[in-house]
């Protein structure tokens, strides 16, 4: 399963958002069921970022949402996002 989280930092909060999301990479990759966890920024609009995650299944993702590092970043997101994050789950691979 692929998860795409799209995030937009509020004015003056881009660095804080980037730091919080970068801190998620290593502990997330260490979780059982995490196959990939990458952060990208839009080169033309650095306040816009996307996390591209790959999980073995829905249960692994559910457990991820309960980790301490996820809870910590969730608190930061409430302070730094311009708009609520968008989360897409892609479960069907084509070709």
TrEMBL record:
Keyword Oxidoreductase included in the entry's annotation: yes
Pfam family, one: ABM
Positions of the ABM domain: 1-90
Domain of life: Bacteria
Keyword Oxidoreductase applies: yes
One Gene Ontology molecular-function label: monooxygenase activity
UniProtKB keywords: Monooxygenase, Oxidoreductase
InterPro entries: ABM_dom, AI-2_Isomerase_LsrG, Dimeric_a/b-barrel
PANTHER family attached to this UniProt entry: ABM DOMAIN-CONTAINING PROTEIN, QUINOL MONOOXYGENASE YGIN-RELATED
Annotated protein name in UniProt: Antibiotic biosynthesis monooxygenase
Taxon lineage: Bacteria, Bacillati, Actinomycetota, Actinomycetes, Kitasatosporales
């Amino acid at each position: 399963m692929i998860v795409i989280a799209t995030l937009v930092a509020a004015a003056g909060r881009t660095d804080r958002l980037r730091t919080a999301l970068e801190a998620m990479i290593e502990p997330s990759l260490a979780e059982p069921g995490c196959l990939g966890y990458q952060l990208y920024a839009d080169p033309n609009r650095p306040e816009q970022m996307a996390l591209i995650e790959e999980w073995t299944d829905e249960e692994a993702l559910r457990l991820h949402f309960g980790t301490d590092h996820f809870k910590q970043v969730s608190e930061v997101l409430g302070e730094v996002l311009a708009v609520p994050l968008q989360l897409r789950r892609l479960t069907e691979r084509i070709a």
